[in-house]
Amino acid sequence: MSSHAPVNQGYNSQLPGSYPHLLPAKTLNLASGQSSYHGSQGSGQTLHKPPVASLSVAPSPYSGPVPRMPPPASQSPAAAPRLSGGFPPGASPLPPVNWQHSSPPMAPQTNHCPPEPSQLAVLGNTNLSVHHQYVSSGDPSLQNNYVTSGSALSLRNPPLPTTFQPGAPPGPPPAGGPPLVRAPVPQNVSLRAAPQPSFNSAANQEGITSNTNNGSMMVHGSYDEIEGGGFLATPQFATKNPQMSRGVGYAYPSLPPGYQNTAPPTSATGMPSSLNYRSGPQAFPQTPLGANHLTASMSGLSLHPEGLQVVNLLQERKMLPTTPLQPPAPNLHEDIQKLNCNPELFRCTLTSIPQTQALLNKAKLPLGLLLHPFKDLVQLPVVTSSTIVRCRSCRTYINPFVSFLDQRRWKCNLCYRVNDVPEEFMYNPLTRVYGEPHRRPEVQNATIEFMAPSEYMLRPPQPPVYLFVFDVSHNAFETGYLNSVCQSLLDNLDLLPGNTRTKIGFITFDSTIHFYSLQEGLSQPQMLIISDIDDIFIPMPENLLVNLNESKELVQGLLKTLPQMFNKSLETQSALGPALQAAFKLMSPTGGRMSVFQTQLPTLGVGALKPREEPNQRSSAKEIHLTPSTDFYKKLALDCSGQQVAVDLFLLSGQYSDLASLGCISRYSAGSVYYYPSYHHQHNPVQVQKLQKELQRYLTRKIGFEAVMRIRCTKGLSIHTFHGNFFVRSTDLLSLPNVNPDAGYAVQMSVEETLTDTQLVSFQSALLYTSSKGERRIRVHTLCLPVVSTLNEIFLGADVQAISGLLANMAVDRSMTASLSDARDALVNAVIDSLSAYRSSVLSNQQPGLVVPFSLRLFPLFVLALLKQKSFQTGTNTRLDERIFAMCQVKNQPLVYLMLTTHPSLYRVDTLSDEGALNINDRTIPQPPVLQLSVENLSRDGAFLMDAGSVLMLWIGKNCAQHFLSQVLGVQNYASIPQAMTDLPELDTPESSRTLAFISWLREQRPFFPILHIIRDESPMKANFLQNMVEDRTESALSYYEFLLHIQQQVNK
Ligand SMILES: [Zn+2]
Q1: How far is CA 191 from CA 132, 163, 353, 459, in A?
Q2: Taking the complete model, does pTM exceed 0.85, yes or no?
Q3: Of 119, 455, 855, 885, whose CB is crowded by the most CB atoms within 10 A?
Q4: CATH architecture designation of domain 905-1029
């Protein structure tokens, strides 16, 4: 699962210079053409050859340069590993079973910089920026003025909510001061009319690259240089160890997530409290942080009073808290901690970082980060400034954890270089005070977004481009999915993120590929059929991806007609591979998002697959096909990535469809996989509802285009493996053609150099992307953690959820590179090894039992839950595609949702009361206690709700009180509960409103809509419900207590 491969390898992504074909297409209009199309069904492909060539579809020599990304640095042959068949070669070829102490595979590159030759203040101009600013049209829904919440100023200029402009004039503000929302245009700032570079305008491109203020503007060869840091940093990032392709975890796609376990109880919106804008500038000491503010090793232990406890798990069986588990707070001085990044966005498996790798190895706990970098935020400070202040050496963005040596100099917290404070940064537009650089928003917020000036662009920001690729074979028609999808698109067409530049297009396919001309001015869409799937070309490309505004009626017309167009199709073949090639060619010039809907195993042309699931092997941990059978999808995904195209796959299939192979198209292109097993428009209403809800979210959620993400860390620490859906462009730069707010990432780290000289370390992620409005933006998160020198402190600060999440990601990799049973062993060993280390090295008196630090009291439980999770379970009949999909979700889900999927929350809901309830906007939300996942806690006279992230299950006991049945379910008795009930009626009873309030509160906390299943005792869903009772014994899996005994036996050896 971990490899490093360049884009454009193998597969030829170039469009041919000219097309040798003669019109292998025909044109039809939808009305009259339909019969003609179907008339030709099954009559051989030659009938598709057009009798007519009157339309201007003649393939002409390809003209016009394709705006193309310069090749990424890693395309150099030296950095190019082989693309062998099968899964990406592991970063660590068959690491030992105890993976946490395997050394990083490929000589990880320390994220540090050349030592500062002297600690002289840096001379020269750190301000490389162009002195112009974009006027942002913004995305008002998600942004905020940089103004105190509730302040009247924030309402002052509603249409321009995006930014404040600290790039303001040096020196004290003019009388009256600049308005907070938008500063008057200083003389050295030229306002652009709008960030709407006409995309193909050469003049515009010129403008973008020539607006330099010092003549030393670099020519960016790649995003690596742009984000990574421009020429100043190039030596360290681009040339150091050029051949070391770091082991990288390629990831998997997944469904969007749900659930927040850290929502403050008083917030209806789950607004991260640390992102609330503080009402006034905080006093910020200008002395270096470390000396004055660190208490970690000294008095800090008192911050973890419970942390000093040890727990004998064999005696204390009820360790699960009755309220959602909170992440541990790093042991930092409160002045630092209050500025720290919200753990929902950025957290570390160890909130106390070991000083040395040797110490880390002793603890036998994995060190890594879990990120949710593009999460929807209620409050996000957005800065527009002509100067984005970054370290001259390592290109770290200035952040709350740098230290100011004096007013004019700041010291980087990652590489320790001393940098100048640029003149513009001296003025604080918030306080309107000159000389307070430490109170600037950049230094007061661990999460912040910058409007990027032009040097952060390789080309004018791309327009939003959406291409939909639909399977229209007979099988597809049978499922009836096209109706739902087209209707959903019609409903949400105006909500697609974008602007006047938004483009849209459609391709359908069965054994042939069908394009649709939507050129403005046509009276109706025209269909073009390509029957030669071995040599795909694009007829009239300019009319196939069209401006949504200009062609909206044609698009709507097509969406209304499409579902009926293929209803007589008998074509059972599926040429998915050629269709993807066609879609890729169509999108290459711009990049964008490709949404592919597939209902079966592809059978025709490139990328055709064969069934290889053996049903009687389903419950075994051996010899199952978790790796792709062809590298076609991976190669195509890499080509897509190189052209800024991400592919999202919607698989709606009752049959085995080899998701292990198909999923590669999304994994490497930074897309997502959605899976609807046995989708059927009539027989499976729950799936229909699920698809509809998920499409609603998918189509309307925020999207970032042509994105890259880099993670930096303090000198001495090093990143060695990434997990998620992306392509690793260079050693630590992730290529994300699309980024969505529901995607999570994980990173494994190691300690390369002893961290003795520092008491704090920081991690910074920077996500550079193009918004759907065409703005280039950078979202930066910075996390600060203490360094510790003892094993005990490491254990005290362990974050058991983050550890479990990282281990799950590593176990997916291990399943691919070794085997499922190997991965399971590694999970168990992770528990045994760390608890053994604790017992032998920390515990002073050897007590009997299984004694664990309080911080890890749930570690065995969570690992057991992982072993019973669909990804890793054995002994049950798990369909291969479902297992692969579960693995996709492990890789692509933010941690909170991964944990909820793995260890759901169980509540009793027939006894809900207002005791301890939340009060949000006049709504009373009951807060029943979380129960342990064991049937012991169920009773036949009750009703129990299980929240498993993307699904809610309400199990009704056979003897459930009549009162609950009538007051909440609205039925007379147990027997009259409908078999497939997925909704609770709104009844005018207190019981009904309490139950509904609780369920909608759970739903509101996640960006997607979990379906509710109401489960009777005889319901087929009951097995799913019981399967999640992870503490119970099953035929093939240990109970929690048995598992503890097993662990104890191993630990006490
Ligand atoms: Zn630095």
Answers
A1: 6, 14, 45, 19
A2: no
A3: 885
A4: 3-Layer(aba) Sandwich (3.40)
